[in-house]
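Worked example 2:
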Amino acid sequence: MPILTRKLAAEAPASARVAFFEGRPAGETALAAASPAKAERGLPGATPGIFETCANSGCGSGWLHLLRSRSAPVFEGGWSCSAACTRARVEAAVGRELDGRGSAQESHRHRIPLGLVMLEQGWVTSGQLRQALDAQRVAGAGRLGHWLVRQQGVSEQLVTRALGLQWSCPVLPLEFHDAEALTALVPRLFVDAFGALPLRVAAGKLLYLGFEDRLDPVLALAIERMTGLRVESGLVQGSLFRAAQARVLSARFPRVELIEAGSEPALVHALSRSIERVRPAESRLVRAHDCLWLRMWLRPQSGPLPETAWIQDLICSIGAH
């Protein structure tokens, strides 16, 4: 993934490093920066009314709002009357997302080992299981399901069904999968690094999210919070998953900035500065594992799927807190 590195402005309160890349395959031309459009408030909303007050609870400008000349940016459903108010709201949001970071890790949940699941279902024999475990131990790598398929000739479909039983989740089909239409839902980096594959949106409300061999509830929650869609996670047969993931990764994604900050104040500064520069019609911040994900809509979203050309993402690494 090609990355062009640039530094934050000298006025940043602490050191931070910012990198930018286009969310598209190498060789495509850069997407021209789009100007935020004025529109009615929806999902996300639009231009605040003339009598709307600043969303920063600590704002002291009072009735001077009425003389304002700006209608953006909008952050998490609220308009900010000044750069200082934008920063205050971003600071509160960053603190909210970082506060539960240590305790938000998924608690350990005992799962029946895959080999026992398949043995109980009668899908493998004890001899097949023992030989696959021996091969895995000798190789020192590879999942058990891989060795059952490769060495023992077990059906890949049966391995996926067993994984579904292990994780208590459905096995999802790939029919009607439109890779190009779904890339605006999840950043390319998440598809690549976390193995999250958006499969389809049903009835404009439900997003089916596929994984190859294990679910990621933390990431699924982040996508649900960001998109407003209810997320149903499931597993996809390995070979089908990998082929579909390759198609998705080769499609066009929204623009992305990568931000690596040395401190929380530097992170707040970089995020609020980006929001002030872009002046989005809506923007939201969520945490996905050790990343903060800021999405900015340059114009209001008219349906369940955002338009790739009118989205800008920032993915921020989180330093020691």
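Residues 225 and 286 are 7 Å apart (CA to CA). The longest strand covers residues 255-261.
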